Every structure is written in structure tokens, then in C-alpha cells.
From TrEMBL:
It is a peripheral membrane protein. This is C-phycoerythrin class I beta chain. (2R,3E)-phycocyanobilin 2 binds at residues 72, 77, 82-88. The modification N4-methylasparagine is found at residue 72. It is found in: Cellular thylakoid membrane.
């Protein structure tokens, strides 16, 4: 996994040129938005259990056959595996968001995931739907669009750096889309 600094150095080294103008501007932006990035990762990791369990619950509500005898979330052992996989995917998305680089997500999580799911008989449409629900919840937390009105009794206010987080919301969304594309 390369962070923004390592990626810049490797790129400059490959060109046999010093790190210069546009690369330094990109790194400056990365550092300036560092606290927002840390807050975004904190929002995801602090709420990981809720994000994943709500996504799996939503997926099951849309397809109740998953929890019927013979369904892919029946018995509880399979449900636990589904929750575990959701937490793993979310963890690697948070790593990618922290580093600002999707290589760790691609190499350690997505490489061969679809083939594994197919071999195990996991319905990839349902898995992709659960990831889409996770995307919605995580980006709402990052973008601070999670409000008491929409959260109800489970609303939790995160202490975050003030400012526009739309770039981080978009970046996080792209990582979720990457997972959905890999398993669809």
C-alpha cells in the first residue's frame, strides 16, 4: 500500500525527476485535508457495527428468502459470515480512505473476491446491495448529513473538523463503488 507521499516519490523516481510543482501542490492539499480524512475514517470505524448490521438487515428485508431454510443467511453461521465479510470490506475501505489510495483495497480485499463468492454460492447481487447500503450510511456520516431527524434514537453526533467534505464523500463513494463493481 502506498500513501500519498510514497506514491509521489515512486512516481518522481520513475521519471528520474525531483518532486516538483504539481506533486507538491497535491501533497499540500492532502496534508491540509488530513484532519477531515481522519475524522471521516473515525466516523466509519466508530460506527462500523451499525453500518454493517444495518446493511445486512436492509439486504435481508429486501430479500427475505435469504433467512429462510436453504437461504444464504441461514443458519446463524452463514449470517455471522455475512456480517464478518461486511466488516472486512468496510475495514479495507477505511484503510483506502485513510491512505488516499485504493491499492490496499484491491490487493487485500477485492482480488479474487467475486470468484470466491461464486465458488461458495454467495449471491453477488445481495452482497453488492449490502455494500450499496453501507455506502449510503458511511457517506452520510462523512458528509455530516446524518441528522437527529433521520437517525432517531440511534443518532450519534461525531466531533468533526468543520469544512466541505464533499471530496472525501466522493472518494469514499468511489471505494464502495469499486467493491460493488468487483463483486457484481
Amino acid at each position: 500500500m502506498l500513501d500519498a507521499f510514497s506514491r509521489t516519490v515512486v512516481s518522481a523516481d520513475a521519471k528520474t525527476a525531483p518532486v516538483g510543482g504539481s506533486e507538491l501542490a497535491s501533497l499540500r492539499s492532502y496534508v491540509q485535508d488530513g484532519n477531515k480524512r481522519l475524522d471521516a475514517v473515525n466516523a466509519i470505524t466508530s460506527n462500523a457495527y451499525c453500518i454493517v448490521s444495518d446493511a445486512v438487515t436492509g439486504m435481508i428485508c429486501e430479500n427475505t428468502g435469504l433467512i429462510q431454510a436453504g437461504g444464504n443467511c441461514y443458519p446463524t453461521r452463514r449470517m455471522a459470515a455475512c456480517l464478518r465479510d461486511g466488516e472486512i470490506v468496510l475495514r479495507y475501505i477505511s484503510y483506502a480512505l485513510l491512505a488516499g489510495d485504493a491499492s490496499v483495497l484491491d490487493d487485500r480485499c477485492l482480488n479474487g473476491l467475486k470468484e470466491t463468492y461464486i465458488a461458495l454460492g454467495v449471491p453477488t447481487q445481495s452482497a453488492a446491495r449490502a455494500v450499496a447500503i453501507m455506502k449510503s450510511a458511511a457517506t452520510a456520516l462523512i458528509g455530516q448529513t446524518n441528522t437527529p431527524a433521520s437517525g432517531g434514537a440511534k443518532y450519534r453526533k461525531m466531533e468533526t473538523t468543520q469544512g466541505d467534505c464533499s471530496a472525501l464523500v466522493s472518494e469514499a463513494g468511489s471505494y464502495f463503488d469499486r467493491v460493488i463493481g468487483a463483486i457484481s
